[in-house]
Amino acid sequence: MADTSKTFTRTTTGLHYDLSKININKSIHELIDDGKKIRDRISFDQLGKFVPVKRNVVEGISHVEEKMIGDLMPLRHKRLAASAFAFFRGTDELMAFDLSKQTSTNIPVVISGDAHLGNFGFYASPERKLLFDLNDFDESTIGSWDWDLRRLLVSIVLQGEQLGLDSDQINEIMQGAVETYQQILSQCFDDHSAMERYYFSTEVESFLQSEDSDHKLPKVWRKIRDSAEQRNSGKVVKKFTTLDSRGHLVFKENAPRTVHVSDRRFNEIREHLRSYTRSVSPDVTVLLSQFHISDIVRHSVGVGSFGTRCYLVLLTAIDGSHLVLQIKEALQTRRFRGFDVTTPFSQSKPDNGERIVTCQQILQRASDPLLGFYHNDDTGRSFYVRQFWDMKESINLDKLDADDFATYAKICGLLLARGHAQSPTAAIVHGYVGTKKKLVSALINWANEYSKQVHEDYQEFLDSLDADETRE
Asked: Which domain of life, per UniProt (predicted)?
């Protein structure tokens, strides 16, 4: 049997991601008053005015792809070309650059940074309860609250169009999402204590049990719940592995998406997983000490992250059971060619894996206990580690009818507000947004205008692909 005692060891690490921008020394009432004063300086009309930005779409995408694996770019482009919404999902660097040029309140909270409709999903809590929450944090950071809400609204427009909804229906759905965001912030800071905000439940059963005539959940949720509970390491092993010629369990290959790593990369990842244990709790280290690494493949997933360095690690325990870890490259938050997407809260020093893990643990009600990170000093690349699948599942947005889609959008608005409310500075946001209808109208107008920009960008991207094919 392989050596199981030295694969995972633990030393301590400190937190380096700077959270001081969301630390406050004021009461909730003072923070709410601060938000109202900001409203006097930055009106809702200013917030809702779209400011066109000049930039080269193809160069921006190419700049991001320079850091990715070249062999995977044709597949990545195929995924981006699937629809305007797919393009929007995979090119958040464009919107980030544009948002940095818009009027913003710059009230800082920990944000997802990429809070579109497709980045909410199901996953398992440490107690094996099925949760529904934000589930993608590659772009998470400290930033202005409206960046998340704007991205959510634009995704509603694009997905609504894909579902064949008319503009009035889409506007009504956006209205429901913004009003829900406002209402939840109001409840969080007017009615709930800090501990109540912290313990807000995102358990799927709680959502299902709260169903009534006004808050019906999509019927598809029940099917997803049953499916998600089957998505575990055992299921991964059954689907993704096979026996090699020597009878050893190994991952199946599916080039170029899934390929085995070289012996050098295998040994490198094994060493880095030892560094990873510095970022997890002692009980997780003891758990992992019972496993040894059986196989490693590079396995690409997603749309925007497709082409980054992602790996699956097959671990085998001393009792013969298996665990599959996913290692994902943690790139620096969005960059645009020739320009840094800087904000008043940008940080250059923190490790990106640590940034992602820190923000995820703040925004999610509960996170994967195996979630951690490491840094490759030789290449300067950062990575984060988590369980693969582990009851992770998402709703097929194309299968929703208009009513279910509206409910889904409201739930995303609810969860976004709850995540933001973990930052005490969100009380300032509450003071600013209040329950004003004028804010709703302003943000809807902005999202509709920006969705036109997305369609233009998408067409420019498709034209560039056609041009490349012609040259070939």
From this structure: Bacteria
